[in-house]
C-alpha cells in the first residue's frame, strides 16, 4: 500500500475501487482498519481511500508532530500524490480536523463533507465544552472506553465481539497515544469568519447513545457550519460506522449520491 512523506511524518493510506474519490478519515481510537465495514460497500462504486492519520498505526511521526494542525496539509499531499483535483470526505470524530479544515480553507478540493460523532474544530463555547468533556474521557489511562462509554450498551450486550474488535483495532496505534488536548489549540479553531461564503455540501450526524460526547450535541455543531444538515442515529452511540454499519452506510450513500456521481 502507498506511503508518502509530508512535514515530518510518513503517511500511510490505502486505495480501494474506482470512481469518484471518497476519503474515510478515522477518529482518535481508529485507523484504516476501522473502516472495514465501509470499504467493501463503498468501493463498489467509488474510489475509497482510507488514511492512517499521522501518529496512528502505520503513519509514525515524532510525538511533537502528531498534531491536527497538519491534517489538512497531509490530506492535500495525498490528493496530490494521487492526482486528485477534488474528493468527498467522510470523517469520524477527530477526522473532522482534517475534513472540515480542508472544506473551510480549500473548498475547491471538497465535493461534499460528511462528519459523524464530532464537535469539529468549529468554535463556540458550547461546542468547546463538549470537546473538553470528550477529551477528558479520552485521556483517562484506559481511554475511558473499556466500560462501553460512547456505545449503545444494548449493542454491546447483543454482540460483545464487535466491541472487543473495536478495542483491539485501537491497540494497533502506537504509544504514546494521541493527546486529544491538541484538538483545542487556538491555532486550529475555525471561527465564523472562516466560514464566510462557505458552500461545501455538509452533513453532521451523531448517535442518541453518545455519552462519550453529549447526545444531541451535533445539532448545535451544525449551526456553526453554514448550510449544514443533520442526521441522528437512534440506535448508535459515538461510532455509528462501527456500531450500526448498515444504517451508517445507507445514510452516507444517500448523501454522497446527491453530490457526486457513482461509478455506473
UniProtKB/TrEMBL annotation:
Residues 22-250 form the AB hydrolase-1 domain. It comes from Bosea sp. NBC_00436. It comes from the Bacteria. GO terms for cellular component: membrane. The keyword Hydrolase applies. One of its GO terms (molecular function) is hydrolase activity. PANTHER family: AB HYDROLASE SUPERFAMILY PROTEIN YCLE, MONOACYLGLYCEROL LIPASE. Keywords: Hydrolase, Plasmid. SUPFAM superfamilies: alpha/beta-Hydrolases. The keyword Magnesium does not apply. InterPro entries: AB_hydrolase_1, AB_hydrolase_fold, AB_hydrolase_sf. This is Alpha/beta hydrolase.
Amino acid at each position: 500500500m502507498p506511503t508518502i512523506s509530508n512535514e515530518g511524518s510518513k503517511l500511510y493510506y490505502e486505495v480501494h475501487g474506482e470512481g469518484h474519490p471518497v476519503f474515510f478519515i478515522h477518529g482518535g481510537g481508529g485507523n484504516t482498519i476501522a473502516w472495514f465495514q465501509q470499504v467493501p460497500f463503498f468501493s463498489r462504486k467509488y474510489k475509497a481511500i482510507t488514511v492512517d492519520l499521522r501518529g496512528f498505526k502505520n503513519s509514525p511521526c515524532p510525538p511533537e508532530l502528531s498534531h491536527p494542525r497538519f491534517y489538512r496539509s497531509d490530506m492535500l499531499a495525498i490528493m496530490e500524490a494521487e492526482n486528485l483535483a477534488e474528493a468527498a470526505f467522510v470523517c469520524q470524530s477527530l477526522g473532522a480536523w482534517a475534513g472540515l479544515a480542508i472544506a473551510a480553507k480549500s473548498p475547491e478540493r471538497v465535493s461534499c463533507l460528511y462528519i459523524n460523532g464530532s464537535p469539529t474544530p468549529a468554535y463556540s463555547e458550547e461546542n468547546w465544552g463538549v470537546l473538553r468533556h470528550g477529551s477528558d474521557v479520552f485521556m483517562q489511562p484506559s481511554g475511558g472506553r473499556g466500560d462501553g462509554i460512547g456505545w449503545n450498551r444494548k449493542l454491546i450486550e447483543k454482540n460483545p465481539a464487535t466491541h472487543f474488535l473495536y478495542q483491539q483495532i485501537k491497540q494497533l496505534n502506537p504509544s504514546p497515544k494521541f493527546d486529544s488536548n491538541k484538538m483545542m489549540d487556538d491555532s486550529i479553531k475555525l471561527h465564523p469568519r472562516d466560514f464566510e461564503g462557505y458552500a461545501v455540501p455538509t452533513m453532521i450526524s451523531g448517535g442518541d447513545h453518545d455519552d462519550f460526547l453529549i447526545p444531541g450535541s451535533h445539532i448545535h455543531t451544525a449551526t456553526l457550519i453554514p448550510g449544514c444538515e443533520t442526521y441522528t442515529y437512534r440506535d448508535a452511540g459515538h461510532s455509528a460506522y462501527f456500531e450500526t454499519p448498515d444504517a451508517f452506510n445507507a445514510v452516507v450513500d444517500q448523501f454522497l449520491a446527491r453530490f457526486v456521481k457513482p461509478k455506473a
